[in-house]
Task: structure prediction
Amino acid sequence: MAVYAGWGALVFGHEALPPYLFFPLAAYLTALHTSLQHESIHALYNWPQWLRNLIAFPPLGLVYPYPLYKRLHKVHHRDVRVTDPIDDPESFYVTPERWRRIGSLGRALLLVHQTLAGRMILGPLVAVGGLAVTEVPKLLRLDGEAVRTWGVHAALLAALFMAVEAAGLAWWTYVLCFAWPGLMLTLLRSFAEHRSADDPQARTAIVESGNFFGFLFLFNNLHVVHHRDPAMPWYEIPAFYRENRDRLAAENGGFVFAGYGELARRHLFKPVFHPVHPAY
Result:
């Protein structure tokens, strides 16, 4: 209720807010909506399906159709394959074959994409481009599931843009103030969530953070807790982490960051890892 009420207030009351308030609030709410979609996949499993869809289907972030995101994210949660560039659809690694195939410019782009600055600036373009590469061929060959998914998504986007235009907000303003920075914030969360490691438990990070980012990500910055128990509601994660902090840090091999400030200091311009997956 808070997410959608806040979104409606921003869209229809945008003229009442100065840009320095409107822009960060729009970005924050859009990223929070993505966190809500993520929560609906896992912790709302005992809710009726129609209610989960009602909560999660509106494409406030524009890019990902909810059914596609849900399907890919469930595959990602096969922890034994997390980070594998072939089996994990959310992996930021590539195989050596792809590394050789993309040429020097592509390799440079991937290295920049592994820095925090590169992920924030180029990440939205890389995400949209990667989605187009995988989904456009399916649409061209009239794959039934893809046609249904993107047909519904297109209809929802049309309705959203009609509402935005009716509120006197240009569609490109919505893209630049809501969707683009909202995706940037979501990419901040996923920047160092996973790494390659022999032990699957050591592949998932902990980023200790305050309530500003913690609430924005519904405490999935404490990501090892989420992978340990995906059905745990977001509001139970902080207490569980505090009670089990030392054990969780030991189990994940000390893959712990003291907040996003530390991530920025260490990896703003330095790759968090080499793009080629070590197992290959």
Summary: Residues 2-190 form one domain. The chain has a mean pLDDT of 94.
